[in-house]
C-alpha cells in the first residue's frame, strides 16, 4: 500500500492522547495503514519509496468519524409518508414497520449496506458499526456475510453488530413470526461470525459485536447467553436501551431497563447501549459506575418529540459517549457529520432547562471520533497521531461557505455544519473517495443495482 504526504495542510486536527488540538500549516505523512508523522516541512529531499504527494493547501484534515449505531437495511424504507412515526410511540411504530422489514431479501441487505456505507464515506465516516437485527426467514442467515462483502467493496472499516429477536408477539414483543429466531440459533450464528470474521489485530478492518436487538423483544436467556459468549470471545456487547421501553420492562420484570441489564450482566466497560433518552440521572450514574457506554443518535430524537437525551448530564457523570446515525427509517440519512451538528444544536435548544451546561462544540467532535473508538474497543483509531490508523477526511475550506469560520476548525462541524461531501476520505491509509468519486468504483452502477434490488421488493 502506498503512503501519502499531504503537504501544506491549513489545519490538521490532531490528538496525541491529551485531547483535540489544531496544527496549522503542517504536512501529514502516512505509511501503509498508519500515520507516520505530522509536522512542518516533513520532507525537503527524497520521499520514502512509494509515497504519493498530495497538495493539501486550504485543507482542514480531521480524524475519520466513527459511527456507533445504525441499521443499514432501513435505507430501503426511508422517506415514506406512510411510515411517519411522529404521532406514534416507538413501540407502536415498531408494530407498524416490522412486517415491512420481514419482506426484505438477501440482496436488499447487501445493496442497502452499500448504500449506507457509501453515504457515510462521502461525509467523513471511516469506521461503521451496524446493528443488524433483522433476519427474515426468506433472507437466510448470510446477511452479515454480505455486509462484510459490501464493506470490502467500498474499503470501509466495519464492525458488524449481530442482532436478533427471540420473543414472539404472543408473549409481548413487536416481532412478527417470520423474523423470530431461537436463542440457540442466535448464539450459534454469533459464534460463527466471530470465528469467521473477527480480527483483533491492530488496524483490523473487520470485527463482530454481539448485539441482541432489545430487551423487550428477547427472552432473558438470550441476553444472558449473549453476554457469556461475548466475554468468552472478548468482543463487545450492544443493544437498545432507554427509548421508551422501560415501563414495559418494569411491568414484565419488576425493574426498569438499566437495572434489568445490570442484574443479568449485560453492562460494563465492554458494553454500550443505543439511545438512552428516557433515563434518569440515577440510571446514568449507575451506567457511569459500571463503565457502560452510550451511542447517542440525535436525529431520531426530533421524531420522538418527547425527551431530549441528556448529554450534559452524561458528560458531567463521566459516561463514555459516541454518536450514531441510527437506522434510516428513523433518520432518513446516513450522514454522521450531519448528526454531529444536530447533536450540538439539539442540546443548545434545551440548555436553559438542564442541570448541567452543554459541553463545548469540540466535545461533540470528540464523541464522533475518540468517543466512538472507545465504545468499539479500538485504541488504534479515532485520532490523528503517529502510530494511529490513517483514517481521516479533508475539507477544502477555500470556499464562500467557510468565510468567517476558519479561525476555529475544532468547532466548525458542530457549530456551522458541513453541507457537502468531503474533498477526500482515507481509510486505513487508502484514499477511497476523492474529487466527488469513489476510487475504482462506478457510482452509477452501484446506484442502478441498488435501485433494482429495491424495486424487486413488494411493500
UniProtKB/TrEMBL annotation:
Domain Amidohydrolase-related stretches: 60-432
CDD domains: ATZ_TRZ_like (cd01298)
Gene name of this polypeptide: atzB
Enzyme class label: hydrolase
Alphabetized InterPro entries for the sequence: Amidohydro-rel, Metal-dep_hydrolase_composite, Metal_Hydrolase, MTA/SAH_deaminase
Keywords, ordered alphabetically: Hydrolase, Plasmid
Signal sequence, renumbered to the chain: none
The protein's name in its UniProt record: Hydroxydechloroatrazine ethylaminohydrolase
Domain of life according to the entry: Bacteria
Membrane-spanning parts: none
Entry annotated with the keyword Hydrolase: yes
Family: Belongs to the metallo-dependent hydrolases superfamily. ATZ/TRZ family.
GO molecular function, one term: hydrolase activity, acting on carbon-nitrogen (but not peptide) bonds
Matching Pfam families: Amidohydro_1
EC number: 3.5.99.3
Amino acid at each position: 500500500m502506498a503512503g501519502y504526504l499531504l503537504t501544506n495542510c491549513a489545519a490538521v486536527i490532531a490528538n496525541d492522547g491529551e485531547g483535540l488540538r489544531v496544527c496549522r500549516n503542517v504536512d501529514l505523512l502516512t505509511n501503509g495503514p498508519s500515520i507516520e508523522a505530522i509536522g512542518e516541512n516533513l520532507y525537503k529531499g527524497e520521499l520514502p519509496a512509494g509515497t504519493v504527494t498530495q497538495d493539501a493547501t486550504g485543507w482542514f484534515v480531521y480524524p475519520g468519524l466513527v459511527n456507533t449505531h445504525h441499521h443499514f437495511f432501513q435505507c430501503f424504507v426511508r422517506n415514506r409518508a406512510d411510515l411517519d412515526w411522529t404521532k406514534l410511540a416507538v413501540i407502536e411504530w415498531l408494530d407498524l414497520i416490522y412486517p415491512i422489514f420481514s419482506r426484505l431479501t438477501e440482496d436488499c441487505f447487501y445493496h442497502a449496506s452499500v448504500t449506507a456505507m457509501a453515504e457515510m464515506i462521502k461525509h467523513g465516516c471511516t469506521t461503521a458499526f451496524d446493528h443488524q437485527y433483522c433476519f427474515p426467514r426468506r433472507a437466510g442467515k448470510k446477511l452479515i456475510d454480505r455486509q462484510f462483502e459490501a464493506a470490502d467493496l467500498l474499503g470501509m472499516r466495519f464492525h458488524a453488530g449481530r442482532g436478533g429477536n427471540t420473543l414472539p408477539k404472543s408473549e409481548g414483543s413487536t416481532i412478527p413470526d417470520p423474523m423470530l429466531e431461537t436463542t440457540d440459533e442466535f448464539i450459534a450464528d454469533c459464534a460463527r461470525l466471530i470465528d469467521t470474521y473477527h480480527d483483533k489485530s491492530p488496524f483490523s478492518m473487520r470485527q463482530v459485536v454481539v448485539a441482541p436487538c432489545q430487551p423487550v423483544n428477547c427472552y432473558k436467556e438470550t441476553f444472558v447467553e449473549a453476554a457469556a459468549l461475548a466475554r468468552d470471545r472478548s468482543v463487545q456487547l450492544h443493544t437498545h436501551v432507554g427509548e421508551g421501553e422501560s415501563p414495559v420492562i418494569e411491568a414484565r420484570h419488576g425493574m426498569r431497563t438499566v437495572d434489568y441489564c445490570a442484574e443479568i450482566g449485560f453492562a460494563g466497560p465492554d458494553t454500550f447501549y443505543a439511545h438512552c433518552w428516557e433515563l434518569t440521572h440515577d440510571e446514568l450514574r449507575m451506567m457511569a459506575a459500571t463503565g457502560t457506554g452510550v451511542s447517542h443518535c440525535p436525529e431520531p430524537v426530533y421524531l420522538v418529540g418527547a425527551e431530549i437525551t441528556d448529554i450534559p448530564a452524561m458528560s458531567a457523570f463521566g459516561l463514555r459517549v459516541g454518536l450514531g446515525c441510527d437506522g434510516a427509517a428513523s433518520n432518513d440519512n446516513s450522514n454522521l457529520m450531519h448528526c454531529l451538528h444536530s447533536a450540538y444544536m439539539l442540546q443548545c435548544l434545551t440548555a436553559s432547562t438542564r442541570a448541567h451546561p452543554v459541553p463545548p462544540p469540540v466535545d461533540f467532535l470528540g464523541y464522533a471520533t475518540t468517543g466512538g473508538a472507545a465504545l468499539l474497543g479500538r485504541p488504534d483509531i479515532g485520532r490523528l497521531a503517529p502510530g494511529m490508523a490513517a483514517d481521516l477526511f479533508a475539507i477544502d475550506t477555500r470556499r464562500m461557505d467557510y468565510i468567517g469560520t476558519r479561525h476555529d476548525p475544532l468547532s466548525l462541524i458542530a457549530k456551522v455544519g458541513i453541507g457537502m461531501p468531503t474533498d477526500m476520505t482515507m481509510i486505513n491509509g487508502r484514499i477511497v473517495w476523492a474529487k466527488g468519486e469513489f476510487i475504482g468504483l462506478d457510482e452509477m452502477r452501484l446506484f442502478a443495482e441498488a435501485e433494482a434490488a429495491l424495486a424487486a421488493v413488494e411493500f
